[in-house]
What does this fold into?
Amino acid sequence: LYTLINTELMPEKNIFKIGWIFTAVVFSAVLIPILVQEGMFLDGVTYAAISKNLANGYGSFWFPQYTQTHFSQFHEHPPLVFGLQALFFKLFGNGFLTERIFTLFTAILTAIGIVANWNLFNSANKNYSWVPVLFWIATPLIFWSYQSNMLENTLAFCCLFAVYFLAKGSLKNNFLYLSLGSLFIFLALLT
It folds into this structure.
């Protein structure tokens, strides 16, 4: 490991490439096997059912429906995740892989948010942007959350992009970035 990160023995761009290849392998190794299996935590099944109902015309964005008799109006959580996942059900159909595609999509957006924040706050160390992504995805609770279709998956990328745009807007004194950061805070609240 010392040889891999010692810049005297290996150029910075090689560290960047090898690091990202290793991170992509770990990302795939921990996520792909659990995403192609059936079965989830009960909360994830509930969220997928609500989203599937929304995609099939049962309930509405502000009044999602779990079943006709139990939680005929599901107001236990804000509705953004259900609305986004319903879009995936409309695009990819009602199979169990649809919620897995949605989960993978949120994982990729979260990884992009981590890299964007790393590069913004550590501009001198951009070649090591793979390190926080590797530490993040290697945490067992993280890949359990993606296997289980949890709300926090969507919340994570909303919060990361809120921090990124607000920080960038403050650093550059740019109203557009501040507005985008505010939008992501609003989306996080709806999650």
